[in-house]
Design goal:
173 residues; five-stranded antiparallel β-sheet; globular
């Protein structure tokens, strides 16, 4: 068992039940996701999802890390990131049986997404029925027109870089 905390710096911290910091996660993304506002896992705690103030959803695979957190090779892998809402995500959960993620925003909308790819299925209150079996047809929601970013296996998470030497003015150059 572990505890997860989301922070304004876009960082997620994983803690042991004794209060020891086990891991610090930063998203791998070209665009910063902004302060994190919501967290959830699937019932088997293999997937960790985070929602942000900027409307992004980030998905990590944490299964191998939880099997043996002492092994440094068992890294947490960010798998996909997508823009779910134009405003802050206030809640989200995974419905494993249908393989969907449900997100809610301060704009009052509740939307459905494919859990593995971040593809948009629709919103609650729409006239048409949800088509959850067809994941090949990519549709975009009306207010967000960014495609989900699939994170490649070799991508590294953003790390806090420590500067060894401060920048100095070289008047000769």
């Amino acid at each position: 068992p572990l505890l997860a905390s989301a922070h304004e710096s876009s960082c997620i911290r994983l803690w042991s039940l004794q209060g020891n910091l086990m891991k610090e996660l930063l998203p791998f993304s070209e665009h910063p996701s902004g302060p994190l506002t919501a967290l959830c896992t699937d019932i088997f705690t293999k997937i960790l999802l985070a929602g942000s103030k900027e409307g992004h959803i980030i998905r990590w695979n944490i299964a191998s890390f939880l099997e043996n957190s002492q092994n440094k090779k068992n890294e947490i892998k960010e798998e996909v990131c997508w823009r779910a809402h134009a405003t802050e995500v206030v809640d989200l959960f995974i419905e494993e049986e249908k393989n969907v993620v449900v997100t809610a925003s301060i704009d009052g909308s509740v939307r459905l997404w494919h859990a593995m790819t971040g593809y948009y299925f629709g919103y609650f209150g729409q006239a048409r029925k949800f088509e959850l079996s067809d994941t090949s047809r990519l549709i975009l929601c009306p207010d967000v027109n960014n495609f989900p970013a699939i994170i490649k296996a070799k991508s590294k998470h953003m790390e806090k870089k420590k500067v060894k030497y401060p920048l100095m003015l070289d008047r000769d150059k």
